[in-house]
Amino acid sequence: MDPVVPTQASIRNIEHLMALSGNEECEVAVIPRCGHAPVDVETKSLIRIDNLVINWMNDRLTPR
């Protein structure tokens, strides 16, 4: 919800720069109605992103 850089352009920029840096284990998460802070832009309530991060880490760090 950035009025200056649209979401798709931000995703392309992040993916491009991460590839340039050699980081091939990155993922972009787009959280609906969330701007640069974990706050819903409509309701102004906190958006819990801790489970998103924990699940991402668990998927990548837990031996299978």
Would you mind describing this structure in some detail?
It is a single chain. The chain is mostly helical and 64 residues long. It has two domains: 1-30, no CATH class; 32-64, no CATH class. The protein has helices at residues 7-20, 50-61. The protein is flat, with a radius of gyration of 14 Å. The mean pLDDT is 88.
- Radius of gyration of CA atoms, rounded to a whole number: 14 Å
Compute the separation of the termini in Å: 37 Å
SS-based structural class? mainly alpha
Low-confidence stretches: none
- What composes the largest sheet? none
DSSP helical segment count: 2
What oligomeric state do the depicted chains represent?
single chain
How would you sum up the global shape? flat
Share in helix:
40-55%
Number of domains: 2
Strand residues, percent: under 5%
The chain-level mean pLDDT equals: 88
Instruction: Give the topology string: H per helix, E per strand.
Output: HH
**Overall strand count:** 0
What is the compact description of this entry?
This protein has 2 helices and no strands.
Key structural traits:
64 residues; 2 domains; flat; mainly alpha
Element layout with pairings:
Layout: H1 7-20, H2 50-61
